[in-house]
Amino acid sequence: MISFEVKDMTCGHCVRAITEAVHEVDRGAEVAIDLASHRVDITPDRVDAASLRTAIAEAGYTPVDLAAVAAPTEAGQAAAGGCCGGEKRCCG
């Protein structure tokens, strides 16, 4: 599954526009949208995340990969002392 945060998605029209944009590039994709959290989850049938991101952007929206937002970077983990801030329970 590929997930995006689309903060400028604000109404049912936006949901339809994004769904249609995704289906234009991947007819078989499954699209689940949570308007309240601005989350777009896509299970693609034949295209990659970059193609989906481009399709949503071309529809007039600003998709941000949720993996990029949620996943800490290795540098960030090191600066924080590991993935849990250095707590003994997972970082030893």
Question: Count the helices. How many?
Answer: 5
Low-confidence stretches: 74-82, 86-92
| Spatial arrangement of strands, main beta sheet | 2-3-1-4
| Rg calc | 16 Å
The dominant shape is globular
- What is the arithmetic mean of pLDDT? 83
> How many extended strands?
4
Report, as a whole number of angstroms, the end-to-end distance: 32 Å
Specify the structural class.
alpha+beta
Order of helices and strands: EHEEHEHHH
Relative strand content: 15-25%
Helix proportion range? 40-55%
Give a quick account of the main beta sheet: strands, pairing sense, barrel closure: 4 strands, antiparallel
From the structure above, extract its key features.
single chain, 92 residues, alpha+beta, four-stranded antiparallel β-sheet, globular, disordered C terminus
What does this structure look like?
The chain has helices at 12-25, 49-58, 66-70, 74-79, 88-91; strands at 2-5, 30-34, 39-43, 64-65. The chain has a 4-stranded antiparallel beta sheet with strand order 2-3-1-4. With 92 residues, the protein is of the alpha+beta class. The protein is globular, with a radius of gyration of 16 Å. Helix 1 packs across helix 2.
Brief overview, please?
With 92 residues, the chain is of the alpha+beta class. It is built from five helices and four strands.
